[in-house]
Amino acid sequence: MTNHSQRPEGRHPEGRRLDGKRAVVTGGAQGIGAAIARRLAAEGAVVALLDLDAERAGAVLGAPHVGIACNVSSTASVDTAFARVASAIGGVDILVNNAGIGSAPGDGMDKYYAAQAAQANDPATPVDQTIHCEDQGWARVLDVTLNGAFRCTRAAVRLMAEQGIGGSIINIGSTAALAGNGPIPYCTAKAAVLGMTRAQAVELAPRGIRVNAVNPGATETPIYAPLPQEIKDKVAADSLLKRLATPDEVAGAVAFLASDDASYATGSTVTVNGGAYFS
Questions:
Q1: Residue 264 pLDDT more than 90?
Q2: In a domain? residue 17
Q3: Residue 120: inside a domain, yes or no?
Q4: Which long-range contacts (CB under 8 A, 24 or more apart) does 17-20 make?
């Protein structure tokens, strides 16, 4: 039996730590996903960017990298996308589970924000989400953010097992999962992603597959765009560095975990939140 757990024999030249690697980034068309894809490509990887909008994903990098249509809330779509990954770039050595949503229709966040605004005039106004959150809003956030990460991990591990190779899986979590300062379905989904990270790190270590997570704090991405400006200003002020993160700063942590520089890291979480919350 091949010993997948042995130490790596060498390093790639500085700035090209991922030469010869094949990477898959979900939600790769914009925001953190696009930044991660660019960084992995700059490090030498060939990248498949999975997204609902394959054309937009493909435009992030261009050939030899590929954009592939994928709806992570559909098992059939995920399995089809990973079959396309296998034919387009030959397999997967690195998977970044980035696709996720922070809110969905019916999750009660519209009433939550309205109550927050009303507190300016009446501090006693209760700020509720749970009582307004309907099943469909709850289920939609968990299906994309948690179940989607599981579906993609399962498909990637099947490809790795077929080829008898190890690899690196990086899940994008959130410090909201630890601090509880976000939409309840989102915090729940991201907390579960961190639990899945640890459980799969234990399970997949004998195959030489490392599983880690990156916990971004508030980051300048489309998911933050709809938030009221006063909330974004408060979130920035709550960090020690007094600003939001950039997607490139999150991508740097992902590139580290994907590379042999992190060859002894599994089941770990790297927090990139400007000191807003210590975990």
A1: yes
A2: no
A3: no
A4: 17/43, 17/44, 17/255, 17/258, 17/259, 17/260, 17/261, 18/43, 18/44, 18/45, 18/94, 18/255, 18/258, 18/259, 19/43, 19/44, 19/45, 20/44
Residue-wise pLDDT tens digits, 156-172: 999 999 999 999 999 99
Task: Say whether 186 is catalytic.
Answer: yes
Per the residue annotation, which of 112, 113, 186, 224 is the catalytic one? 186
pLDDT for 279 beyond 80: no
- Over residues 176-228, the pLDDT tens digits come to 888 888 899 999 999 999 999 999 999 999 999 999 999 998 888 876 777 77
DSSP state of 219: B
The lowest-confidence range among 50-54, 145-149, 271-275 is 271-275
Tally of structural domains, the chain? 1
User: Is residue 130 one of the residues assigned to a domain?
Assistant: no
Domain span at 236:
22-104+139-271
In a domain, 111, yes or no: no
In which residue are the tokens 């729940």 written?
Answer: 188
Quickly list DSSP for 19-67: TT-EEEEETTTSHHHHHHHHHHHHTT-EEEEEES-HHHHHHHH-TTSEE
Check: CB of residue 91 under 8 Å from CB of residue 158.
no
For residue 92, the one-letter residue type is V
Q: What is the CATH number of the domain that holds 203?
A: 3.40.50.720
